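Sorry to interrupt, but I need a hand with the structure work. Leave the record below and I will have a look:
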Amino acid sequence: MFKRILVTAALPYANGLLHLGHCAGAYLPSDIYVRYQRLKKRAVLFICGSDEHGVAITVTAEKEKITPQAVVDRYHPQNKSAFEKFGMSFDNYSRTTLPIHHKTAQDFFAEFHQRGILKEKEEQQLYCETDKMFLADRYVEGTCPNCKYTQARGDQCENCGTWLNQTELIDPNCKICGNTPVVKSTKHWYFPLGDFQKRLEAYIAERSKRDGWKENVLRYCQSWFKEGLQDRAVTRDLSWGVKLPIKGYDSKVMYVWFDAVLGYISSTKEWAERSGSPDKWKEYWQSPETKYVAFIGKDNVVFHCIVFPAMLMGWNDGGKSQYVLPENVPANEFLNFEGQKFSKSRGWGIDLQDFLKFFPADMLRYALAINLPESRDSDFYLKDFQARVNNELADILGNFVNRTLAFTEKNFAGKVPEQGELGKLDKEMLAALKQTPAAVGKLYEHYRFRDGVIEAMNLARAANKYFNDSEPWKSIKSNPEQCATTLNVCLQTCRALAILLEPVVPTIAGNIWKILNIAPHLRDAEWESAGEPMLKAGHALGKPEILVAKIEDKQIDDMVRFLEGGGQPKGNSKPMITIDDFKKLDLRVGRVVQAERVPKSEKLLKIQVDLGTETRQVVAGIAKHYEPEKLIGRSIVVVANLQPAKLMGQESHGMLLAANGDQGELSVVTLLEDVPLGSVVR
């Protein structure tokens, strides 16, 4: 039915580093699928890129006192490099700040505007009188009206998943200054999502019946349909983003949800231009012979199952060209780390690039693949990672390949021996070999990657048992012909495993080919060929070598120390510093002599600190965690050489040290012993 396959993986935000949860959610599953399809010799295109607009970027920029462009210019190359080291085989990894993307998004907006699809509405929006700006959703924080979570954003509550209008928040505050905003009128353009609900329901029902959508995805979509789809704003009062292609709206940009999903199309256009055929992108996006599969995490279901298809339907209604809609959106649930959710704010987890400093990518790919959160949340534990690598990759796969090659080198001069008459064990092993490609392939076609990996590894398990039961160390003396047959079958299985496991552990698979002494241009590596005994008798093999080194306890201990502070605090992405960097800090012991709240601020306290030789005023964002009077008399540590700054009109000459708790609570660092005021902390 389909001549080609288009695969997209969710565009990661370029305001931070990728962590293992991202890999398990959208990226490893999509790469396994694409590598499998390539082995099937199908025309497949794999597209991704950085999502570089939106408030998440500007918030990071303001915190760091740099431009949004500087933020994305830092994280885009780091994440692109991490993906490459992880083994992601994208055909194109683009950026939404590129002109080709802005033009693509503007074309969609202009088309919808010209045809009257977009609706202009005057709405009530929160406005900060202190910062003189309308507050985009992530600039607002308050209590969720649905679940009463106190740190809900202005667009969505991360705790219960409710999509919010910022004016619905209880006790909202501006995340820039901490003040309570007022409600003012502004105008925005809206996309009529509700007008597409019936068509979207029919589309999802039809595609699900045809390609077997996941139950968790269907349940999520049904919950949205039950609530009833509403008009969604496509513009925002920001300076950072894609400018509107209409006059009179210079202070507004496209809402990031609108432009980000179009990044798949613009990235494909960039790929086509790079390949020398600028119109080739249309073969994948505008042909009914294309199967489009969109891999995402569950937090992106609404955008890829409902919003993006509605946008494509809206464009297609114009009759100019017809975009394909996703055939499937196989969203994964969340991966937790050591029993807790990944959290940048709490510094919990580990970034991908840091993990790969300790262990090879294939080890991580295998451990994640065997534990993918395909239908429910799963957990990643370092000790389980170690056990998976040692007990499965090393002891089952690596051991089988090594013992087969070592035995062949010792007893058959390192050449594939002749296959003789087949016995019962040989026939059973060859039968398992023949049926495994179809069994694994069927699971991959239905996006059951975890089961597919298990099925492929079961062949290695069966091969180890076959080797043991055949006892070639005995038959080499009693029946050399039978021994030759055993080793022939084992070597055929080694070749099969190189093909079947390539989508999961491509480097290890490549090393198996190397050990088999088969050069890349000579590998007949079609998927189905894994089930056939293709190695010719007499073929000279390479030298046997350890395929997978076991992970020692010390290596895990080293990583744990790194996570606990040896390199960075619990997965936070701050870079390593030298002792000279640390010496630049002037940390002094001080005593709080006075503390009071800063007027009109819910977060700030104004504190007078006695440093022995002088009294400093420090303004700290701890008002939600401490009553002023409870700080008086405490001995604290102050950064005494911090450049003075103004917060809410108050001068701050220093910074006190505080620790972030697991639930976001702040604890001021205090001294238990009586230390002279002004003492240097080293």
